[in-house]
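Methods — Computational structure assignment.
A single polypeptide chain was analysed. Its primary sequence is given first, followed by the predicted tertiary structure written as structure tokens.
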Amino acid sequence: DGPQRRELETLAAGLGFSSSVRFYGRRPWREVLWRWMREADLFILPSLSEGMPLVLLEAMAQGLPVAATAVGGIPELITHERTGLLVPPGDATALASALRRLLADEGLRHSLSRAGLKVAEKNTFERQSGRVADLVARLALARLGNGGFQAETV
């Protein structure tokens, strides 16, 4: 949703995509996200700036093959051509090419989907929080010189 919504709806209709492009608007984001992911065949994240996008992990956990821009923490989650497709930020031609590849190559979609599921499994909240707890414990031990301090990993 946003100021260009009507223009984009008109463009989608003019290109004959009305039946396959959805504009959900400002509904509660979780409702929209899960409904969309159940309907989707692939996931595209064309961000110009990102931290560590959880939505990318959520898409991978749903088994969606992904294409995304190589910004922020995205390259930490996607290895180009192994767990997804990476394109330069702001490069619409490269993004369109990645999208065409995903649409045309069922084998590629399946291999990226399987590999993405493994990435999502390695990056669950439980695993990440355990890694953070372990890091904090190691830093505390280093800082205190382990003077009798016992760290426990959660």
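Note: The mean pLDDT is 85.
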